[in-house]
């Protein structure tokens, strides 16, 4: 009987000690891994980013401060190849192949996030199509985004050589991050302006528009760029046709008078 009691006490002590120390060990391991990630990101930053954004991310005359921009802004800018910028003289940074691997981008994002609180990289649950309302997304897109990206999402011209890029073939995660952080000329849409569900709806709508290969119900789409291409078409063909008719009528009239 005494041996059984001793065995039960030993098992209870073992279980209690495991419950006390195991979570602490796991938390410590997670903290160590995060510290290593930040340290690697700091090394990458010093080589590829500090010359423009400053050694501590405080910004310089060649690049803005990165304190408080968050991991989402880093993931968007670096994953799409906009950063590192090819030149500081361009009106805005264009999309190009990414310089860093996703693992390196995660390290850079972790380091920048350590400089100041900011939006985190969204999860697939946040930007995935599950539970999205495409019709609501279309309404939100037309009210908040179409003025720059036009109603088909093909992009459009802005002032001083800047432009709203096309949204075709853009990853849902990057669309979410752009709405969350407001890169370059774009305003930000935090959750207080557009909720997570609103962003999910817009992304689902854009996915539907980009995969819809049906004919344009309005006839020739002219690239879907709106008044620029439509106005150009009107000037060249409409006004050109009127001039041609006027010349033809004048020639016929002159010929009739001579005869």
TrEMBL record:
<keyword id="KW-0679">Respiratory chain</keyword>
<keyword id="KW-1133">Transmembrane helix</keyword>
<feature type="binding site" description="axial binding residue">
    <location>
        <position position="53"/>
    </location>
    <ligand>
        <name>heme c 1</name>
    </ligand>
</feature>
<feature type="binding site" description="axial binding residue">
    <location>
        <position position="149"/>
    </location>
    <ligand>
        <name>heme c 2</name>
    </ligand>
</feature>
<keyword id="KW-1003">Cell membrane</keyword>
<keyword id="KW-0349">Heme</keyword>
<feature type="binding site" description="covalent">
    <location>
        <position position="49"/>
    </location>
    <ligand>
        <name>heme c 1</name>
    </ligand>
</feature>
<protein>
    <recommendedName>
        <fullName>Cytochrome bc1 complex cytochrome c subunit</fullName>
        <ecNumber>7.1.1.8</ecNumber>
    </recommendedName>
</protein>
<dbReference type="GO" id="GO:0005886">
    <property type="term" value="C:plasma membrane"/>
</dbReference>
<feature type="domain" description="Cytochrome c">
    <location>
        <begin position="36"/>
        <end position="116"/>
    </location>
</feature>
<dbReference type="InterPro" id="IPR009056">
    <property type="entry name" value="Cyt_c-like_dom"/>
</dbReference>
<keyword id="KW-0472">Membrane</keyword>
<keyword id="KW-0479">Metal-binding</keyword>
<dbReference type="Pfam" id="PF13442">
    <property type="entry name" value="Cytochrome_CBB3"/>
</dbReference>
<keyword id="KW-0732">Signal</keyword>
<keyword id="KW-0812">Transmembrane</keyword>
<keyword id="KW-0813">Transport</keyword>
<dbReference type="GO" id="GO:0016829">
    <property type="term" value="F:lyase activity"/>
</dbReference>
<feature type="domain" description="Cytochrome c">
    <location>
        <begin position="132"/>
        <end position="210"/>
    </location>
</feature>
<dbReference type="InterPro" id="IPR009152">
    <property type="entry name" value="bc1_cytC-su"/>
</dbReference>
<keyword id="KW-0677">Repeat</keyword>
<dbReference type="InterPro" id="IPR036909">
    <property type="entry name" value="Cyt_c-like_dom_sf"/>
</dbReference>
<feature type="transmembrane region" description="Helical">
    <location>
        <begin position="232"/>
        <end position="251"/>
    </location>
</feature>
<keyword id="KW-0456">Lyase</keyword>
<dbReference type="GO" id="GO:0020037">
    <property type="term" value="F:heme binding"/>
</dbReference>
<comment type="subunit">
    <text>The cytochrome bc1 complex is composed of a cytochrome b (QcrB), the Rieske iron-sulfur protein (QcrA) and a diheme cytochrome c (QcrC) subunit.</text>
</comment>
<keyword id="KW-0408">Iron</keyword>
<keyword id="KW-1278">Translocase</keyword>
<dbReference type="InterPro" id="IPR050597">
    <property type="entry name" value="Cytochrome_c_Oxidase_Subunit"/>
</dbReference>
<feature type="binding site" description="covalent">
    <location>
        <position position="145"/>
    </location>
    <ligand>
        <name>heme c 2</name>
    </ligand>
</feature>
<dbReference type="GO" id="GO:0005506">
    <property type="term" value="F:iron ion binding"/>
</dbReference>
<dbReference type="Pfam" id="PF00034">
    <property type="entry name" value="Cytochrom_C"/>
</dbReference>
<keyword id="KW-0249">Electron transport</keyword>
<dbReference type="GO" id="GO:0008121">
    <property type="term" value="F:quinol-cytochrome-c reductase activity"/>
</dbReference>
<feature type="binding site" description="covalent">
    <location>
        <position position="148"/>
    </location>
    <ligand>
        <name>heme c 2</name>
    </ligand>
</feature>
<feature type="binding site" description="covalent">
    <location>
        <position position="52"/>
    </location>
    <ligand>
        <name>heme c 1</name>
    </ligand>
</feature>
<feature type="signal peptide">
    <location>
        <begin position="1"/>
        <end position="19"/>
    </location>
</feature>
